[in-house]
Specification:
With 143 residues, the chain is an all-alpha fold. The chain has helices at 3-28, 30-36, 45-68, 75-100, 105-133. The chain has 5 helices and no strands.
């Protein structure tokens, strides 16, 4: 496997693992996740319900991404799924920053990580798509 393909695969796996980890924390121990970002604990059942629902969704998406990287035919879609979710979170954070004011440093870091991982996953989706159509993109002399 070429170095570019390994890097693309690693980017998608890392994105999937982060989604599973953050989603799992949101589902199982939402207060730990929020306290790490300077957010007060959710003391209302409806808010906890919302947080756990988003956590479950993120964990499920991360699981799908990790399943997708195991099959070459699904890698592009898995990376695209990770990129879409991560970049959507980064965009939502940017809109909130503009509309609501600057968040705490933990959420700024989260947004930066989402932007970097989402961009890496988008690149990985492109690499997987190109690799599926041209296994050897480096021109080689005729044999």
């Amino acid at each position: 496997m070429a170095v570019r393909n390994r890097l693309a695969l690693a980017a998608t796996v890392l994105a999937g693992l982060v989604l599973v980890a953050v989603g799992g924390l949101g589902l199982v121990v939402p207060d730990v996740l929020h306290e790490a970002n300077g957010i007060p604990p959710a003391d209302h059942p409806a808010m906890r319900n919302e947080v756990r629902g988003v956590g479950a969704a993120l964990a499920a998406v991360g699981g799908l991404v990790l399943v997708g990287v195991r099959r070459a035919a699904w890698r592009s879609q898995a990376a695209l799924l990770a990129a879409t979710v991560l970049l959507a979170f980064a965009l939502g954070r940017a809109v909130s920053w503009l509309a609501d004011g600057a968040p705490g440093p933990g959420l700024v870091t989260a947004g930066a990580v989402e932007l970097v991982l989402g961009t890496a996953a988008a690149w990985s989706a492109r690499e997987a798509r190109l690799g599926a159509h041209a296994p050897d993109r480096v021109s080689s002399p005729a044999r």
